[in-house]
Amino acid sequence: MQYDTKIAIAVWNGLETWRKLNAVSFLAGGLVGQSPELIGEPYADGSGTQYGAMIRQPILVYEVEKADLTKANSRALSRGEVPIIFTADLFATGNDQDNRAAVAAVPLEELDLVAIALHADRKTVDKVMKGMKLHP
């Protein structure tokens, strides 16, 4: 199935695996919070056991350098998009309020980005992630 939109998450290649997974998980949740239409229908197996819904379309995950994250954030913002970001400071916080305060304490130019997510039309996501490689 071809979707009109695309979902991409770029994560810094210098993170430990558990931190990559943590950041990507938080960003995927943020995508759904920002775009509730991304949620598909609930699942049921052949025995009728019910399961929760998932994001309805594939997520492209890129493994990138730090400079790529800054570039992607700038590209998204310049196109009027609202990216979802994860900064290194968020690994030291324990709740949403502290997360938001940690981001608010740092100007745009000094954000220590370790991951970024975007849900937008296909062409926009392609332009924002241009030159970046999918995570192996």
SSE blueprint:
Layout: E1 5-12, H1 17-34, E2 43-44, E3 50-51, E4 59-64, H2 66-78, E5 84-87, H3 96-104, E6 113-121, H4 122-128
Parallel strand pairs: 1-4
Antiparallel strand pairs: 1-6, 2-3, 5-6
Helix pairs in contact: 2-4
Overall description:
This protein has helices spanning 17-34, 66-78, 96-104, 122-128, and strands spanning 5-12, 43-44, 50-51, 59-64, 84-87, 113-121. It is 35% helix and 23% strand. Helix 2 packs across helix 4 (122-128). It has one domain (5-128): Bit1 (3-Layer(aba) Sandwich). With 136 residues, it is of the alpha+beta class. It is globular.
What is the number of independent domains?
1
Low-pLDDT parts are none
Percent of residues in helices: 25-40%
- Principal-axes shape call: globular
Q: In angstroms, what separates the terminal alpha carbons?
A: 23 Å
**Count of individual helical segments:** 4
| Amount of beta strand | 15-25%
Give the averaged pLDDT, no decimals. 96
CATH architecture: 3-Layer(aba) Sandwich
According to CATH, what is the topology? Bit1
H-E order: EHEEEHEHEH
Task: Please tag this protein with its features.
6 strands, Bit1, alpha+beta, 4 helices, 4-stranded mixed β-sheet
Q: How would you concisely characterize the structure shown here?
A:
By secondary structure, the chain is of the alpha+beta class. The chain is 35% helix and 23% strand.
